[in-house]
Amino acid sequence: MSCPRCAQGYILPDEPKGSIQPDFSGAYLAPNPDAETTTSDRAVIVLTDVFGLPLKNPKLIADTLAERLRCDVWVPDYFNGRPIFRLDDMEPPEREDDPMTIWDWLRVLWKTFLPNLGALWSNRSSVVDQRLASFIPLLKEKKGYKKIGAVGYCFGGSACIRLASTGLIDGGVICHPGPFSLTQVRAICTPVAWVCAERDEFFANSKQHESEAELAGRKGTDRFVDFEFKEYKGTVHGFACRPNLEKPEVVESYKSALDQTASWFEKTLVS
């Protein structure tokens, strides 16, 4: 399921510098800038929102992280060429300062969700998780990575929560996730950072506090994993990948969320 914010946002300026890799299921690769002189045994994967690879934003995020972390950053096509939403479905954000109404939900249901019902079914959680369960070992086998981090946005945020319980990744960043359960949080066994919007229809403050309390309650036990939560004032669901470019304060929060992401991987992926 999607909320009205999932169909809203802006396309970031600039053009991606990386390339699509046919041998890796059509994933986008932002290469390590130092690849000609040094090698890195770590990598990061970016898990997109519902617009998938046709939206250039996750590719630009991958470029930025590759430059900052000096490692390869991948954006897998975990929708297998059929994103849940089409790029034409995206609209500029409206009434960001007001709560979503029932009419907002009905509108996105009628205009965006129902026409894309087939893509949603073909990309249900169990299918996407299986694609990632194949993609990550392929990266390790073919590229020799010893550590892999994952950052997910919206739909990808929910996928990152599930991925953080598999042992396939060594660090995760969860940005304003879509639907998930507290049971899935209890299963997390990987250090995770959370990028939280101030107003989020999917990740309300109460659920944020429950998730944080679950992870904090493990302190002093063998199930403890490092974690952090940061909330960005004046933001709504989607800001970390589709920021409102007409609001400088939101753009700054988008950049700060990228800084948080890079810092978390510098902490969790470096031995």
UniProtKB/TrEMBL annotation:
Gene3D superfamilies: alpha/beta hydrolase. InterPro entries: AB_hydrolase_fold (IPR029058), Dienelactn_hydro (IPR002925). It holds the Pfam family DLH. Residues 40-268 form the Dienelactone hydrolase domain. GO terms for molecular function: hydrolase activity. This is Dienelactone hydrolase domain-containing protein. The lineage of its organism: Eukaryota, Fungi, Dikarya, Basidiomycota, Agaricomycotina.
